[in-house]
Amino acid sequence: MEIIDLRSDTVTHPTPGMRRAIFEAEVGDDVYCEDPTVNRLEIMAAASMGKEAALLTTSGTQSNLIAVLTYTNHGDEIIVGDESHIFWYEVGGAAALGGVTMRTLPNDSCGRLNLNDINRAIRDKDIHYPETTLLCLENTHNRCGGAVLTTDYTNEACNLAHRCGLKVHLDGARIFNAAIALGVQACALTENVDSVSLCLSKGLSAPVGSLLCSSKDSIERARKFRKMLGGGMRQAGIIASAGIVALETMVNRLGEDHANARRLAQGLADIKGVTLAQDKIPTNIVMFELSPELSAREFIEGLEKAGVKVGFRNGRPFRAVTHCMVSSADIDEALTRIETVCRRLRRGIQK
Questions:
Q1: Of 224, 249, 274, which residue constitutes the final position of a domain?
Q2: Which residues contact 177 (CB under 8 A, 6 or more apart)?
Q3: Cα 20 to chain center, whole Å?
Q4: This model's pTM is above 0.90
Q5: Final residue of a domain: which of 226, 249, 272?
Q6: In whole numbers, what is the pLDDT of the chain averaged over residues?
Q7: Could you identify which of 129, 166, 264, 322 might form a hypothetical disulfide with 257, taking C-beta atoms 3.0 to 4.6 angstroms apart as the criterion?
Q8: What is the pLDDT of residues 232-269, one digit of tens each?
Q9: Mean pLDDT in residue range 137-152
């Protein structure tokens, strides 16, 4: 039985083109900035985000932490969403390693922070207060069901932050999904942010890697923090070669994943006992819930036996993420298996 893995787009495998590129990669010592493949990838990434320079890192979490370290000092305060990836899933690195306080503001269902809330959260200059130095946004927004921040909203948030002396970092792990959903170039969504991280290992299907893009001066500062965190890699062209193929071949196909996510959502909505947990499916993340009488534990166990994997954390909706290793036919098959599991659970209740 074929396993249909919808837990995350991080489960994607490198394409045959990536594997060939890895095998043939020209390499050097990247700590000395002598790996030609890394240098080429960083130039490509910076250009795609409309920035002067970029830095290859091991992960999105590392990119985000390096951005925080680059723009803050110990004792500062940063503003993040209460549903943000930085706050929930990065092990408190900003606080533990950066020595900064995370001031959380509520994200709305579209992943936005209210501009008035941001303005009120920025500290006055006062001996009693930490200094607010950084605003962090997220696009697309993971815990808000792949929600997309528009160009207008991002620009308004940046203008507000910059007027108050703050820098703005964008967690753009799935920034190309946002660009495809809006029908714009990714650089239109990053024009006014001071830095942006983008992941190669999610929908773009590379095996590992993220890039932090910013000004030349910021990237030079960031490079030292990457080394401090143990991220100074040597012949990293092995990684970068797959990233180049990802940027060249995998961006434009992301719309297929979005279409499959909508197909999945429509099918889930027709299954008795299943309710969608979001009004719209803007990109490749689908969040859904079970009727209270159905057991989440038994549902997950049933799906595992049926060969379907979805994401689930207690207290949160189930999450299904589409990607290049899941076809439209796979979506239809997954829906059939999910409906069968739900039917069995309902029968068990009736007995």
A1: 249
A2: 140, 146, 148, 203, 254, 257, 258, 283, 284
A3: 26
A4: yes
A5: 249
A6: 97
A7: 322
A8: 999 999 999 999 999 999 999 999 999 999 999 999 99
A9: 98
